């Protein structure tokens, strides 16, 4: 039986770093307030107006190919999970392929907010499992700074920019993506969305003047739903696969809020030593958080490790993926 295994991983973050102290200078907030509520200390923000999400993705995918020793021309399919595409069309995936020279690949964008990487990973794995494709690249990336109001202290302290990418290849070993569980509930739109920019409210003087092209979030409602949904779906995928807490080596949870991550770990019964965490350095890069986590922790991952990926996103979307890591990260140069 063919499974889809992650065989390489890479990421990219803009050079410009904005700390909590920097934000104190432009809005009514404090390092203590941000840290105690979110766990975030700093975030990377792209300050070059000529760069878009695809440019971050290009850097991540180039590094991915270099690490694996393959040419972009060997890529069969590239799926990009993002809510900050360069353009309405063509897709960011299309732009990435053109910029890196992936001439033999096709692809598409997938919009599921902070769950975008898990949705894309689960989708891409199906193309490997059928035997149709040999090399599928999954990218999770968002340039959130372009849709955030930096006069709104409830949202601007949370988000950052970044991109992560993984390569999926077939394996017949007991490795790779074992199971996934995905959910969606569009009734969550009222609590987390962008008011304008689509066909319902296209851009106009009115929408721009009223700041309707920025993220709108009702923090308490989103927090409550995220805590419950991420914790439950993570515990459920363990139950479905007869996994106990001691069987899990790592939890790679969406980096939205440290309290949400801690609640998920507690529901799974695992200790902090098994929880990947980089929210303090990157903030919430939405679809980029999970691949950036795996990239940061790659050296600590061992072949056969049981890893649970878990996320919750606007709309609402949420889910979990259970995978067995396919290589010893310490061996990667």
Structure, explained:
With 333 residues, the chain is of the alpha/beta class. The protein has two domains: 3-174, Peroxisomal Thiolase, Chain A, domain 1 (3-Layer(aba) Sandwich), CATH 3.40.47; 178-328, Thiolase/Chalcone synthase (Peroxisomal Thiolase, Chain A, domain 1), CATH 3.40.47. It is 32% helix and 24% strand. It contains eleven helices and 13 strands. It has helices spanning 20-24, 31-38, 53-68, 92-100, 116-129, 153-156, 205-209, 219-240, 258-268, 279-282, 289-296; strands spanning 3-12, 17-19, 42-44, 77-81, 106-110, 136-143, 161-171, 176-184, 192-194, 215-217, 250-253, 306-313, 317-324. The strands form four sheets. Strands 1-7-6-4-5 form a five-stranded mixed beta sheet, sandwiched between helices. A four-stranded mixed beta sheet has the order 8-13-12-11, sandwiched between helices. Helix 4 links the parallel strand 4 and strand 5 (106-110). Helix 3 packs across helix 4 and helix 8 runs parallel beside helix 9 (258-268). The model has no long low-confidence stretch (mean pLDDT 97).
Number of strands: 13
- Give me the CATH architecture of the largest domain, please: 3-Layer(aba) Sandwich
**What is the domain total for the residues?**
2
Within CATH, the superfamily of the largest domain carries the name Thiolase/Chalcone synthase
Form type: globular
User: How would you write the strand order of the largest sheet?
Assistant: 1-7-6-4-5
Share of helical residues: 25-40%
| CATH fold field value of the largest domain | Peroxisomal Thiolase, Chain A, domain 1
Largest sheet: 5 strands, mixed
If helices are DSSP runs of H or I spanning 4 or more residues, what is the number of helices?
11
Uncertain segments: none
The averaged pLDDT comes out at 97
């Amino acid at each position: 039986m063919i499974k889809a295994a992650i065989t390489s991983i890479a990421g990219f973050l803009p050079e410009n770093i904005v700390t909590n102290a920097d934000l104190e200078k432009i809005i009514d907030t404090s390092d203590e307030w941000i840290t105690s509520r979110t766990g975030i200390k700093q975030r990377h923000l792209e300050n070059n107006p000529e760069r878009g999400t695809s440019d971050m993705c290009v850097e991540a995918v180039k590094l991915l190919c270099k690490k694996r020793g393959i040419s972009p021309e060997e890529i069969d399919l590239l799926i990009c999970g993002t809510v900050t595409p360069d353009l309405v069309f063509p897709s960011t995936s299309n732009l990435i392929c053109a910029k890196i020279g992936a001439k033999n690949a096709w692809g598409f964008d997938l919009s599921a907010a902070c769950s975008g990487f898990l949705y894309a990973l689960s989708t891409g794995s199906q193309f490997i499992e059928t035997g149709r494709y040999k090399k599928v690249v999954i990218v999770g990336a968002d340039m959130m700074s372009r849709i955030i109001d930096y006069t709104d202290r409830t949202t601007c302290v949370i988000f950052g920019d970044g991109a992560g990418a993984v390569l999926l290849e077939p394996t017949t070993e007991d490795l790779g993506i074992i199971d996934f569980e995905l959910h969606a509930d569009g009734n969550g739109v009222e609590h987390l969305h962008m008011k304008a920019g689509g066909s319902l409210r296209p851009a106009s003087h009115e929408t721009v003047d009223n700041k309707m092209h920025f993220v709108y979030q009702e923090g308490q409602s989103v927090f409550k739903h995220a805590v419950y949904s991420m914790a439950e779906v993570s515990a459920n995928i363990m139950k479905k696969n007869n996994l106990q807490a001691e069987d899990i080596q790592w939890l790679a949870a969406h980096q939205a809020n440290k309290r949400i991550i801690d609640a998920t770990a507690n529901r799974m019964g695992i200790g902090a030593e098994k929880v990947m965490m980089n929210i303090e350095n990157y903030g919430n890069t939405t679809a980029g958080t999970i691949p950036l986590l795996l990239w940061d922790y790659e050296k600590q991952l061992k072949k056969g490790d049981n890893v649970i990926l878990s996320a919750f996103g606007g709309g609402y979307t949420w889910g979990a993926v259970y995978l067995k890591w396919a290589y010893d990260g310490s061996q990667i140069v």
